[in-house]
Amino acid sequence: MRYDVIVAGGGTAGVAAAIAAARGGAKTLVVEQYGHLGGTAVSGIPFLGSMDCNGEIVNRGIFSELIEKMGEEDGCYGYATGAYWHTPQTPERYRFSLVPFDPEYYKYVAQELVLGAGAKILYHTFISDVIMEGNRVVAIEVVNKSGKQIIEADVFVDSTGDADLVQLAGGSFIDNPHKQNCSILFRIGNVDLEQFVADLEEGKAVKGWGEWHTRVIKADNKQIPTSVVHLAGHMVLGEGEPETTFTAVSLRDGEISLNATRVAGLSGVDAEEITKAEILERRNVMRLFRLMKEKIPAFRNARLLTTSPIGFRETRNIVGDYIITMEDVVGGAKFPDGVAKGAYPIDIHDPHGGRTRFYFIKSGGSYDIPYRSLLPKGLEGIVVAGRTISATHEANGSTRIMGCVTAQGEAAGTAAALAVSKKVLPRQLNAEELRDILRANGALV
Ligand SMILES: Cc1cc2nc3c(=O)[nH]c(=O)nc-3n(C[C@H](O)[C@H](O)[C@H](O)COP(=O)(O)OP(=O)(O)OC[C@H]3O[C@@H](n4cnc5c(N)ncnc54)[C@H](O)[C@@H]3O)c2cc1C
Fold it and tell me: What is the pTM of this model?
């Protein structure tokens, strides 16, 4: 089997990469280990970071299309705004915004956009090896119910979230033993959301609200069928209980998706540790859910609806032709080969289990993702997109956020198709030409 472009992993970045590569005229295949697209994006979290802290939208293109198409299906209602950041590090009046969406609609819309663009999807298929010619990746080995197969392509987009292809190809990674922690996200139904906000604000049954990193966004966008869209804060659910830092999003009245538990110090690229993380986090979720039902009146009749697979915020980050640093992010760096934008503050869920740390972009604006940070040093025929691009531990605290990741995917897929059409390696592309195509397709570069 032979394709022009293989997109390895159909998650947040991979979806955009596949759409862009196929629309760019490349015969494209997406290989995904699960039976749906979306990866971490369908865990029950909102899109963050696609509007900067001054209120300007920084990611459009395929990102906007996903929002619009989900909107047509009643699975997304656009931006929710109306709150400001509230941490000791935040400059005054830094706006907070998010785009909540229903993950089930994302799975459908992403699949149809990918197929509609002309790409092929291979679900339930794990990429287990790469085949090299010198330092160029020329094929992948996959394993699925049909057995093992070798699939060739001219260009590969590594959007596995763990840079699996780069690892298999012998690429190098940024050395950082302290990775961000990991979480299972969970959705709860039959919650009285307005009561929950009142409980929090009155300090009833819940302590610690309002100290720092506290936010409430009520539905100012009247289309959103929920009274409270977003909550972030801390609660102490009783004597001797540790502080629970949480963010919550709601798209439908009475339902809330929570990011509130975590395990630190386990690796997302070690099978034993991934298993341990799943086990410990499932226990954490059940324990917290029971405690919330017991202690918070608004949750008395709540039901646990769904849980996500364990989500690792950070695993491998490639050493690319350029490494994005913390200074680049907070300084709002602009690059001549900028192919995507990021605008979310650096958000580090403490590797040691403490409070989340934030570092804000000084202007309140955005920074560029240079094309060079998608190119793994020493390897050819491969472009990387997603949380594994070439960024330091600190910078990755921002580049990993989904608005930026989707834009990186679009850039990687567009670059892959362009390289195929010009019969050159991705590294040989003229970045200005790539930027022109991205701009013409509606992306913000
Ligand atoms: C717990 C948690 C909460 C978060 N909260 C937010 C939030 O609220 N808002 C926000 O914007 N961002 C949030 N993020 C960050 C963001 O969701 C991720 O950084 C981003 O979605 C990663 O995108 P990706 O494309 O790199 O990886 P993924 O979306 O994880 O996609 C990787 C895909 O590759 C597939 N895959 C992996 N390996 C293989 C293989 N060998 N063979 C075949 N398929 C493979 C996977 O199944 C998956 O579909 C959160 C992250 C986590 C973990």
Answer: 0.97
Handedness of CA 351, 355, 359, 360 (dihedral sign): positive
Give the residue among 32, 24, 106 at the shortest CA–CA distance from 65: 106
Distances (CA, A) of 117 to 122, 138, 210, 376: 15, 24, 47, 27
Cα(289)–Cα(292) distance, integer angstroms: 5
pLDDT by residue (tens digit) across 377-398? 999 999 999 999 999 999 999 9
Beta carbon of 45 within 6 Å of any ligand 1 atom: yes
What is the number of structural domains in the chain?
2
Among 291, 312, 333, the domain-final residue is 312
Cβ proximity of 383 and 426 under 8 Å = yes
Query: Is there a domain that residue 74 lies in?
Result: yes
CA of 99 from ligand 1 middle (Å) equals 17
Relative to the CA of 13, which ligand 1 atom is closest?
A: 25
Per-residue pLDDT of 251-304, as tens digits, reads 998 999 999 999 999 999 999 999 999 999 999 999 999 999 999 999 999 999
Residue 233 lies in a domain: yes
Q: Is 67 a member of any domain?
A: yes
